[in-house]
Amino acid sequence: MQINNLMISQSVGRIGCINGKQPYIIPVIYFYDGKDIYGQSHPGMKINIMRENPSVCFQVDMILSLGHWQSVLGLGTFEELDGMEASNAREYLYKSVMPLMSSQLIHSHQHEVTDDMEECDNNKPVMYRINITEWTGRFER
To answer: Does residue 130 have a pLDDT over 60?
Structure first.
């Protein structure tokens, strides 16, 4: 229950992947549906690595102080989405995460949830899901 609560309460996590030689960790904005993690990205190193080796980990933490923090790590598999599945995930991402962002970082007119999310200016072309198969967590209070 604590892991689920932390995952739902946060919107920034880190994907860890490996290209066969070197680990690669990158922060991403995500949403968690209670089972899987969803995000979007431009093509690049992270997407190329995960396409080649879809075994990934996903880490989220909340640090209030050195003696009061929570951290979870999920092990899972990257899966690229397309078609309606990608469109539905993008719509949910914008509805759940964009209201949390500062108005100094985004302009609401650029992130309106419309009937045609594919035309939104800030869409990133790659929508993905991370199917989590195992969770672990640590909570210090």
So the answer is: yes
